[in-house]
Amino acid sequence: MPFDFDAVIHKQYDILPLDPSLIKTTGEQKPQILWVGCSDSLVLETLTLDVQPEEIFVHRNLGNVVSNGDLSSESAVAWSVDLLKVKHIVVCGHYGCSLTKEKDPKALYGWSKDITKLHKLNDEFLELSDRKVDETSREHRLEEVYTLAETDWLAKQPNVKAAIRERGLQTHAFIYDKDSNTCVRLVEKAKGGKPEI
Ligand SMILES: [Zn+2]
């Protein structure tokens, strides 16, 4: 099981504006960031972070999925963390993703089974919590908790965990909104209610 689905669906987090200085450009032609994004997100990574193209190692797939054991994602993470020794990992989901809208993706050979499960749990959670939310807000929350779940999952992988501990690698969860052409940061609340910055 890639996620603790119960923990994922109950996540408490803040949505913060993305300060362009969060990841400063090094000015060097060397990757310092692994960017995990979705193939249909239309996000422009270098503009979002205001860094040079050489500073980002980009890995995109359908739904910014890294937790399902596929070799392409695993290799991208191993390459950038163990060999390139990037300083940051950004997982960037996006609102309006065609994959998270899909409720019955039989044609995808199980690729998005965890998202499908989260989709259902998210609907149940919102109904139980009696929040009167429209379809767009439901989708947005699904994108948010899902992106946080993938970011969390990555931070727990042995090589990423070691890099966080030993050399200060940082992980970040972003959501891109095509309509406003902006990214926001998702920051989980620590126990006691204060966000972890
Ligand atoms: Zn997408």
Describe the structure.
This protein is α/β, with parallel strands linked by helices. It has one domain (5-188): Carbonic anhydrase (Beta-carbonic Anhydrase, Chain A, 3-Layer(aba) Sandwich), CATH 3.40.1050.10. It is 38% helix and 20% strand. The chain is built from seven helices and six strands. Strands 1-6-5-4-2-3 form a six-stranded mixed sheet. Helix 5 crosses helix 6 (135-155). It is globular and about 50 Å long. The relative contact order is 0.21. Residues 38, 40-41, 63, 94, 97-99 line the site of zinc ion. Zinc ion is lined by residues 38, 40-41, 63, 94, 97-99. InterPro entries: Carbonic_anhydrase, Carbonic_anhydrase_sf. It holds the Pfam family Pro_CA. This is Carbonic anhydrase.
Mean pLDDT: 90
Number of domains: 1
Q: What low-confidence regions span 5 or more consecutive residues with pLDDT below 50?
A: none
The helix tally amounts to 7
Annotated CATH homologous superfamily: Carbonic anhydrase
Structural class: alpha/beta
In whole angstroms, the N-to-C terminal distance is 28 Å
**Helix and strand string, N-terminal first?**
HEEHEHEHHHHEE
What is the CATH architecture assignment? 3-Layer(aba) Sandwich
In this structure, how is the largest beta sheet organized? Answer: 6 strands, mixed
CATH class: Alpha Beta
- Integer-rounded radius of gyration: 16 Å
Give helix % range: 25-40%
* Annotated CATH topology: Beta-carbonic Anhydrase, Chain A
User: What small molecules accompany the polymer chains?
Assistant: zinc ion
EC number: 4.2.1.1
GO cellular component, one term: cytoplasm
InterPro entries: Carbonic_anhydrase, Carbonic_anhydrase_sf
GO biological process, one term: cellular response to oxidative stress
